[in-house]
Amino acid sequence: FAQVLRGTQISLQIAVLVALFSTLVGTVWGAVAGYFGGVTDTIMMRVSDLVLTLPLLAVAAMLAHNFGGTWWLISLVIAGLYWAYVSRVARGVVLSLREKEYIEAARALGASDARIIFRHLVPNALGAIIVNATVLVALAILLETALSYLGFGSRPPDTSLGTLVSEAQTALTTRPWLFYFPGLFIILIALTINFIGDGLRDAFDPQQTKVRS
Fold it and tell me: Can you give the pTM of this predicted structure?
């Protein structure tokens, strides 16, 4: 029980750091690309597309093997592969917002590009970005679990849910609780985060209508 709680703590720390770092980098990257457009947009999005084409598990395993070991290094490795997803979302929202009247008004008043991006565009795109960040939490937990199961994740004295599952697979027939309880926590965390993401999507969706009784 203590090991499962400790593994849950490490897995959640990794997932939250991945979501924060990926969201920060991806939002800035996508917002800048969407705002400026043209050649800037093309070059920046090709970089994102290149990251998206990488086989996540294979690249993450290689990087984690060379640079990993501690939970925060593993978080940075996973975040370095997931930020491109957020950049695509941020760019799409910014493309639809940059032609709005209040953006034209800000330009007419002499607002700088940086102020328009971070003061007007990014705050109005937060709905879609926050929803995407919750999805990244679940994806990060599953990827970290896969890495730990393959032996490329957290190393002693640290542990994680994936590490517990990997270590307990040999005891599946004699002490199955060592295997099933960490796996159950992984499933519950992923489902919970997905439900939270669905709720946030509904809450931030401007097309949702509020029915009053």
Answer: 0.79
